[in-house]
Amino acid sequence: MSPSPTSRSNRKDPIALGDQPVPPVHFPDELRIGVLAGIEDHELRLQAHFLSCDACRESGLALAEFADTPEGRCVPQQPITCWQARNALFRYFEQGRALDSNAVAHLNACECCRDHFLEPARAVRALEDESSISGLD
Fold it and tell me: Where along the chain do its domains lie?
């Protein structure tokens, strides 16, 4: 049995930290560490993943929608670093945690984060909009 993309290993029993099970992961640790460290190759791999992964599609669409609202475009009330915003992004995609407005504002304001993480979400949104319009013809 090969490991699924949402588990750390092929173990059948969940790994626990104390009484808390470790949440499933969708992104390999190597990719996550590279993205948090700002390694461009890893950022590009994640960008490509966002464009092609059906499991990330719905969350990406919601991210693109929120990022284009006035709340998502505002200046962060508490500025955060790239790695903090990226970590929040991983938690959002893997665990369904809400992205706070400071993280989304950073993703909008930071050129590197915007290019690698928001633009793929916006591209997926544009494709969805285009396919829904063409479906009406």
Answer: 26-136
120, exposed or middle or buried, with CB in 10 Å at 0-12, 13-18, 19+?
A: buried
Angle between helices 101-109 and 82-95 (to 10 degrees): 120
Q: Are 53 and 120 in contact (CB under 8 A)?
A: no
Exposure pattern of 51-74 as b/e (b: 16+ CB <10 Å)? bebeebbebbbebbebbeeeebee
Q: How many residues does the chain have?
A: 137
For the stretch 2-30, pLDDT in tens is: 332 223 333 334 444 456 555 567 888 99
Number of Cα atoms under 13 Å in the Cβ half of residue 48: 7
Alpha-carbon distance 58 to 67, whole Å?
A: 14
Going 82 to 7 to 100 to 48, the CA torsion angle's sign is positive
With 50 as the cut, is the pLDDT of residue 115 above it?
A: yes
